[in-house]
Amino acid sequence: xxxxxxLEECNLVKEECDVLILSASxxxxxxxxxxxxxxxxxxxxxxxxxxxxxxxxxLVPLFNRLxxxxxxxxxxxxxxxxxxYYQATGKISSDSFWQRHLNKIGYSELMMLVDxxxxxLIISTFPIPAGVLSAxxxxxxxxxxxxTVITDMCVHSQWxxxxxxxxxxxxxxxxxxxxxxxxxxxxxSDSGIPILPEFNNNFDKAKLKExxxxxxxxxxxxxxxxxxxxxxxxxxxxxxxxxxxxxxxxALILTGYNQDLYEKLQPLMAKYSNFRAEKFFHNMAGLMQxxxxxxxxAGGITISEALASGLPMVIYKPMPGQEExxxxxxxxHRAAIIAKTEHRVRTATNRLACDEQFRLLFQKNCLKxxxxxxxxxxxxxxxxxxxxxxxxxxxxxxx
Length: 399
What we know:
This protein is an alpha/beta fold. It folds into two domains: 3-195 and 373-398, Glycogen Phosphorylase B (Rossmann fold); 198-369, 3-Layer(aba) Sandwich (Rossmann fold). It is built from 20 helices and twelve strands. The strands form two sheets. A six-stranded parallel beta sheet has the order 2-1-3-4-5-6, with helices on both faces. The protein has a six-stranded parallel beta sheet with strand order 9-8-7-10-11-12, sandwiched between helices.
């Protein structure tokens, strides 16, 4: 897409901003982090002008469609190939031939966008623009702070670039991994992966159960699988799990934009009284605090939200690559059970639903790892990178 067309579409023609966030539509997590940071920054600095741009929109449309299609097909049909790619690029040097070419993707288009918007700080929630921004700084085409938000519990070379001024990461383990790769500790904020500020609210669980249509003593299991879904990606058969749920356990599946799945689940809703399907819940923070168990994929944002909510997880068939790393992180800290078969899903679900002490142990571990205020902490670190004059301008109104 041409830059002028992009600006006109977003009503941003020659409109300057304070913060530019570069996200991407590869899965839903990168955009969710962008929204969380926007909300948190504007809560702390209400006058701050923030603009989010999908980096994919800067690229040649055909290239963009092909790369997204290739990514999704490799995840669904050739996960081993994706895993090999992920491992091969995990420790490449920032000045390697491959990385130098990656850092050219969208370079000219991003320069034009920055020239039009004149941001005072730029945030990347996707690895490709993080590398491009670092290259722009190295060549003298950029002189503002750049922030990279790593959206998984991993240390991977695609996120690590020499001219990055601040890394926002999900855990102290990731921070230690960056230090091991030569990143100064003062350049890292282990605030947690930024999630929406409402996850820092305390909800009345009993009132939420009533509002969501559950009985006070019901145990509630949420089943969700990110933008692609555990059903489409793995062929997970829900009815086998529903048939063996203990009494008093209710299952709620969120289908998101998957209309086909929602329609296919209607016969199950008619057959099983302990099951319901919904497309979306607007109060996801309240739903996670109310629930007792989450069956899901291991996306970085979903698991961060669950950890902040003290919600134990069953991770079904994590994909090789960052999902597997996320799942292993949860398992090491006994915050989730990894299930690679449907039988294992059923046994793990029944154990966590019926054994209260076992579930409470996992809940406690989730809360230890969780960062309900992650977006606020990250926003503070980001705002501290702006000049003192700018900080006074936006904070004096709060006194």
